[in-house]
Write a structure and sequence with these properties.
Phage tail protein beta-alpha-beta fold; 18 strands; 8 helices; FecR_N; 23% helix; sigma factor antagonist activity; Jelly Rolls; three-stranded mixed sheet; alpha+beta; 376 residues
Length: 376
């Protein structure tokens, strides 16, 4: 856990302090201060990962410094520590815009206490690469093991936004539009909860720690594979790209694999709806189902109502079918995500539909085109 209120500042930690070369301990302490700064960027996290991976000494020193930093919580109410906290925040505010490495007071404090605090459990911090909020995780592994065993975080994407997350175990998640995923890794299991939306999970193999995704009342278990999960309301759809996964009902307290489920092979999808325990397994065109990863939506003789619902997931302005008779019209084609208006303009070429010219606000009315006047 980051000690509340501790803010430090630095620029590029892979550069030297003016006039001298920074030691590994100074670099590690500087990174600790930088990574919990409000001005920390995804670029900073990328540079940090590169610095840490460059040498086992970097990794071990950072873990030691993180032990010390975590220990500062015990002294949070000490008047001297509180004053140093205030000074560190003031230093951060004063130097936030300077590009060179500014070795912060918070980092100095970490160095000063490094010899005084001895903690048994190191901490490892990781981040997503494509999102808005740096991720913070705690680990109970040793630096020599190099594993991130304990990790909690919540990732989300906005409407129309796609985001890729790198997890500390080597797995990755691709978040589709308007998606929320909760991460809870423990030494015995990698548990994720898809609160809503859709994501592709590329799982790093670890036979001792099952990778389990919960989506409503269903649970998907994998060891090393690539699959997608979509949760919309009460419906859950799982599509398998590589490897194999088990899909089973989720029952609190039940261990993985103890309830009746199905095992998918590549090219299959499982679908459930509502509270029904039955799982429908069918073949799926994976490229089409996951075309959103390239910013496209592909329809093949789909109902217009279903296509509109899919397009609306990626747009703040929503299409509404003004005439129920439009719902069963059929549509095929590839469309770019992100604009309901562009979709409406494109389909109006092939279908007798058009946007209501009185459109406004967050809703766009899609009406049936009036029949052309007949002539004698």
């Amino acid at each position: 856990m980051w000690p509340n209120g501790w803010i430090g500042t630095m620029g590029n930690a892979d550069t030297a302090i003016k006039g001298q070369t920074a030691s590994v301990s100074e670099c590690a302490a500087g990174w600790i201060a930088r990574l919990q700064s409000e001005s920390c960027s995804s670029e900073d996290w990328s540079r940090f990962r590169a610095w840490r991976a460059a040498s086992p000494e970097h990794d071990a020193t950072f873990n030691t410094m993180m032990n010390t930093w975590d220990g500062l919580d015990e002294f949070a109410e000490d008047p001297d520590i509180m004053q140093m906290r205030i000074d560190a925040m003031s230093l951060d505010a004063a130097n936030a815009s300077r590009p060179a490495w500014l070795f912060p007071l918070a980092a100095c404090l970490v160095l000063m206490l490094a010899g005084a605090l001895a903690l048994a459990i190191p901490s490892i911090y990781a981040s997503k690469t494509g999102g808005d909020i740096p991720a913070v995780a705690s680990s109970s592994s040793t630096a020599a093991e190099g594993e991130s065993l304990a990790y909690t975080q919540v990732y989300s994407s906005g409407v129309g936004q796609l985001s890729t997350v790198d997890l500390p175990d080597g797995s990755t998640i691709e978040l589709n539009t308007d998606t929320v995923v909760e991460i809870d890794f423990t030494p015995g299991q990698r548990h994720l909860n898809l609160v809503r939306g859709e994501a592709v999970f590329e799982v790093a193999h670890d036979a001792d720690r099952p990778f389990v995704v919960q989506a409503g009342d269903r649970r998907i278990t994998a060891l090393g594979t690539i699959f997608s999960v979509r949760k919309t309301g009460q419906e859950m759809i799982v599509a398998l790209i590589e490897g194999s996964i088990d899909v089973e009902p989720f029952e609190p307290g039940a261990r993985v694999g103890s309830t009746a489920g199905v095992r998918l092979t590549p090219g299959q999808q499982a679908r459930t709806a509502g509270t029904a325990r039955d799982i429908e397994v069918t073949k799926v065109n994976v490229d089409r189902a996951l075309s959103w990863r390239t910013g496209r939506l592909i329809f093949d003789n789909d109902r217009l109502a279903d296509a509109v619902a899919e397009v609306n997931r990626y747009s703040e302005r929503k299409l509404v079918l003004a005439d129920p008779a439009l719902a069963d019209m059929r549509i095929s084609g590839a469309f770019t995500t992100g604009s309901a208006e562009k979709f409406a303009a494109a389909i109006s070429v092939a279908l007798p539909v058009s946007l209501d010219p009185r459109r406004g606000g967050s809703k766009l009315l899609l009406r049936k085109k009036p029949a052309a006047n007949s002539t004698r």
